[in-house]
Write a structure and sequence with these properties.
Radius of gyration: 13 Å
Shape: globular
Distance between the termini: 20 Å
Strand order of the largest sheet: 4-3-2-1-5
Number of strands: 5
Helix content: 10-25%
Number of helices: 3
Length: 108
């Protein structure tokens, strides 16, 4: 799972591991939004434009961003009765799994 983040979201992440990874249809794009003075996360799958919206995101959730994002995606897929691998392989949201690569998105 590759997550491409806007500059605004990257600034909130603690020392993100930036990798140069070619674009693919299984990538996810992530952006941080503020609605009513609350941080919200919008994740969008690049191949299908499947959106995952998480309201009221707290700073501690962003510390383990890869696990948090994978968990939010798993939950959204489960809410729609879709299998976890429907949109490509996802890293399991466990503390034992490495965080997915985070890449700077060109559309900051």
């Amino acid at each position: 799972m590759v997550v491409r983040c806007t500059a605004r979201l990257l600034a909130m992440l603690p020392t993100p591991a930036l990798d140069e990874v070619p674009s693919g249809s299984d990538d996810w794009y992530a952006s941080l939004l503020w609605i009513d003075r609350r941080k919200c996360l919008l994740l969008v799958h690049s191949g299908t434009l499947f959106p995952v919206f998480v309201a009221d995101v707290r700073k501690p959730q962003l510390v383990a961003f890869g696990q948090f994002a994978a968990g939010a995606i798993f939950d959204a897929l489960a809410d729609e009765d879709l299998p976890a691998d429907q949109l490509g392989p996802l890293d399991p949201p466990t503390s034992a799994s490495p965080a997915p690569p985070v890449v700077r998105s060109s559309d900051s």
